[in-house]
Amino acid sequence: MSVIDTHHHFLDPEAHYYPWLNDAGQPPHRYGDHSALKRPYLPADYRRDTAGVDLLGSVHVEAEWDPRDPVGEMRFIASQRERSGLPSVAIGQVWLHQPDAARTLEQLAAFDFVRGVRQKPRANPAPGGPPGGMTDAAWLEGYARLEPLGLHYELQTPWWHLPEAARVAGDFPGVRIVINHAGMPSDRGDEGLRAWRTALAAMAAHPHVAIKISGIGEPGGTWRLDANRRVVLEVIDLFGVERCMFGSNYPVDSLCASFQDIFDGFAACVAGFSAEERAQLFVENARRIYRIDV
């Protein structure tokens, strides 16, 4: 199987500071206990985990590194690329609402392998409640700086904030958005999935929005084909084959399954698609959207 993995993380909490890994008292991950992640995960580890596929490229996504030094993470990634050739490209961290966002974005854009940025906007823990961070004036001012720098935006937010994201997409058609983790379908019941799909459809209406089918394990650390098939197929139905990509979310999703099992699961979900469509989903869309030279 040929693959470009559009979502993984390299990290070293022994040498660098990641609040969610290094600080005591942090809440567990949405999959549950994440203590197994509190160790280095570097290209050699990733090559071991991906040995069963023909890995054509990969995308490192910011790993919630020390927010006081977001550019430091890209220096760390640059050193990994120099030693190992991985990742192919990267997504940096930025806090768009902070006064130093303009300078941070300029510094990130100066790395020739950085394609975009991610910040998890302020969000409510459940549907309802006040508007989230994507409505803040300072955040929108920072977001407007992406297009001149040629950076796209990686969006990770609960599905109930996607209507806010759809308004941002409409107001800034020159900034590509790549939705992370299939729009986070947290409730796999029929009613929950219907609400998730409705919110996601508002994003799919914008042609400059793409989506990564990644990070779709469930609380308790499972990756079930019978639970995920509907998610995978509904995302593709909404966005079309040409705007969907697969990602492992490794090492985080090692809490749920092996890399091979995750990609075998994706392959099983789209077994009925044509060879050309499968090539788009596993390789070609990632090559185009992330500008990866394979």
From TrEMBL:
Hydrolase as a keyword? yes
Q: Which UniProt keywords apply?
A: Hydrolase
Which intervals hold domain Amidohydrolase-related? 4-292
Q: Which InterPro entries does UniProt cross-reference here? A: Amidohydro-rel (IPR006680), Metal_Hydrolase (IPR032466), Metallo-dep_Lactonases (IPR052350)
Q: Which domain of life is it from?
A: Bacteria
Q: Which GO terms describe its molecular function?
A: hydrolase activity
> In which family does this protein belong, per the annotation?
Belongs to the metallo-dependent hydrolases superfamily.
PANTHER family in alphabetical order: AMIDOHYDROLASE (PTHR43569), BLL3371 PROTEIN (PTHR43569:SF1)
* Protein name per its UniProtKB record: Amidohydrolase family protein
Report the source organism: Ramlibacter pinisoli
